[in-house]
Amino acid sequence: MRYCRLQTKHGPQYAEVVDRGGRLWIERLIPPFEEGPASDFVDSAIDAFDPLPLDDAQMLAPVAPSKIVCVGRNYGEHAAELGNEVPAEPLLFLKPPSAILSPGEAIRIPALSKRVDFEGEIAVVIGTRCSQIGPDEDPTWYIRGYTLANDVTARDLQKKDGQWSRAKGFDTFCPVGPLVTDEVDPATGLGITTHLNGELRQDGNTRDLIFPIDHLLRYITAAMTLFPGDLILTGTPAGVAPMQPGDRVEITVYGIGTLMNPVL
Length: 264
Ligand code: ZN
Known about the structure:
By secondary structure, the chain is mainly beta. The chain has helices at about 45-50, 75-80, 155-160, 165-170, 215-220, and strands spanning about 1-10, 10-20, 25-30, 50-55, 60, 70, 90-95, 100, 115-120, 120-125, 145-150, 155, 175-180, 190-195, 200-205, 230-235, 240, 250-255, 255-260. Strand 18 (about 250-255) and strand 19 (about 255-260) form a beta hairpin.
């Protein structure tokens, strides 16, 4: 299934996305995925909803994670371009959920940084709570689907601080979307591109992940429990570069779509 989250007259809602003769449509609203009582879902909204083309919808980030777990240097050519060794084990860091940004909304360059880079990445959306995934278990069972993310990074502050929380954690530094889908499979090789102002800057494939997604899920859950909606950013291919106010960044994976954000 493919789904998105959009703004409706009943507030933010999740909705199923279908292909109607080559054009994507938002077909029907679906209940929220988050655990717990907090839910803005309105039952009556289901009947009242009129299908509309995806292009006409006000899209929202399709996840509300308790945490965003990221993997650094998971493509060899990207590690090399920043002068780093390929790590012997996955290199994990966290981004705060407050950094999440909807498709189409503006990434804001903070005054504190002189170099803010894009990092186009494929992101895993967790579907089922998991911890300590064993060697005999299939980690992909816990995955709801895949989406796109931009791991926006204040490169100068990343170097200056020594650890990455501030450099990766500014508000608007985690654009996510537009869709979540379980109809693609990174294990078979998914191409991912990033365009800056229409110019191709990153052209990677998940075949080149140093640590594939099943390995990452075992490694992460050996340390922390993952909850439905949690996001795992799987790392960026080579070609990261700075963004300037007025720029436009587009990250594309066939079957997931294009995550576009302007830069302010
Ligand atoms: Zn990254």
